[in-house]
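U., I forgot to send this yesterday:
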Amino acid sequence: MTMFALNRSRQLKLYNTLSRRIEVFSPLYDNRVFMFVCGPTVYDYSHLGHARTFIFYDTLARFLRFLGYSLFYIMNITDVDDKIINRAKERNMHPLELARLFEKYFYEDMEALNIKSVNLYARASEYLKEIYEQIQGLIEKGYAYETETGVYFDISKFKDYGKLSGRKIEELVVHRIEPDPTKRNPGDFALWRKRPKDELGWESPWGWGRPGWHIEDTAISIKHFGKQYDIHGGAIELSFPHHEAEIAQAEAFTGVKPFVKYWVHSGLLTVEGEKMSKSLGNFITIRDALERYDADTLRLFLLSAHYRSPLDFSWTLVEQAKKNINRIKNTLISLEELKEADKASKTEEILLSMVDSKLDDFINYLLDDINTPSAIATMLSLTSEVNKYIANNKEITREGKNKIKNVFKTMFNILGILEDFDPSKEVKKEDSGLLESLMKTIIELRQRFREKKDWETADWIRNKLREIGIELIDTPEGTKWRLKT
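Result:
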């Protein structure tokens, strides 16, 4: 996919939650980038909120590789959690059996959404050795202590606790921290939970139980990345307490700061201003959405807002994304249908110069904190310019056609859309068969309604054809038709 030689003068900039400002991206190890993203807790089907998060980081990963960086991208799989245990009880299943089932569904969803950039999916349950080592190390360094209910991190011993979320310890202790009278401080969080032998767990130096949520991720990342790495991602709601706890654990354990150089958080997907949740009845699974729209449409919609901004979901907006996908497809098919010219015209030269400029703008928007809305707008603007050329010209050189197709392909590869779309395979074959004759008659009939200004009937014909998979395209040279892809 890489068509862009890494140019240090055109630097990627990312908003760093830790510093609360946009920073020039400079990896710890030259062009080698390590990225960790918090993955799913596999107790249920993934929803569109998850899709938004994971599609953004897939796009970031694609762009980093496009820029010439060598990226190692890990996503964790939380397969040890109270939610999994409770759901397994409801279904009369072993918790790990349930976790493996929904992990399988998660991978299927990622494949369906064309999310292929992750190098390693790391299960929390497979890092117990590293978890034990880190907990023991934190106890020995005086940052953790054991009680009859488990092992806890003492936040009063870590002076930087709260630096990611920007809150003081007094404010933090009242937010989402498990109550336990055996803890020294109300805000102390669990590293190991002691549990009865009849519950899911493992034998440890502190008795039978299971790890706390936060220690799982630092065990995985330190194992593979070492004491420091470049990018940690996840939804903004994870910044506290989860990511705050990760920083405290890792920096207390290794003594190295910062644990992560760039904290990159994505915004929430809402439905009519409310967070997507089952309790509110606005929960839309990835699978449900893919029954109504294809992955290209969903990706384009979910990238239509800046990743740090909230995105309010509506089927109307998804439908608009579908129209844009179809418009791009139709443009490329029409481009493919142009006759081949021997020599580039002045008009073609102007178009190709503009194509270069649009690609430059597209890349520059992404360099500016992964501004996908502006990048998408640029791609759609390019579509309009190519359409204008097609409407007024009957031919283009092979070199010009290939250049336009390659620029679109570059954009598609970064956004993860239309990667399998081949316009040359979609060009309508000329024939004198029944369908051709029938369509000619329907188009002539529709044109008569248009001439009478009976727009309602003309639109009804277009919509009915669309429902059965035939698209009408009105051009200055008349109405054309093609089978929808």
